[in-house]
Amino acid sequence: ELLLRPTGGSFLRGDIAYDANDNVRDVESWSAWGGYRDRRGNGLLINYSYRRNDFDYLSGGVDLALLEPLYLSYEQRYDLETDLKLEEIVTMEYRGRCWSVLVSYSDRPAEQKVNLEFSLSGIADSRLIRPVTSALNNFF
Fold it and tell me: Label partner for 30 (CA 20 to 30 A): which of 66, 111, 116, 131?
């Protein structure tokens, strides 16, 4: 495994697994990632992953914070062996001071899905919520 951080917001990472058994002597898997994120939250990520007899795919994503407090992102995974799109996700998030709303659309070969999430920031520290979460943790 190798990890390089040429700048504060960028990275390059590689990982390889080699099978050194006498009857195999082959690369079992390898991956390479690269990414960059600026101080405002805009970012780019690209990833290649391969595992022998299992998968060989390329993925990437873009995060945009240009319309703050509205954030947009796009991700895609693509299978290089079958020449098919594995997954595509489009996300839009509005962030308020102590809350956020996120809507995402996910498209996979056998499934399309829309998610809606609503988040409250800092509510776990509330004196009213702490006894409830404590009781739930003891219950489960």
Answer: 111
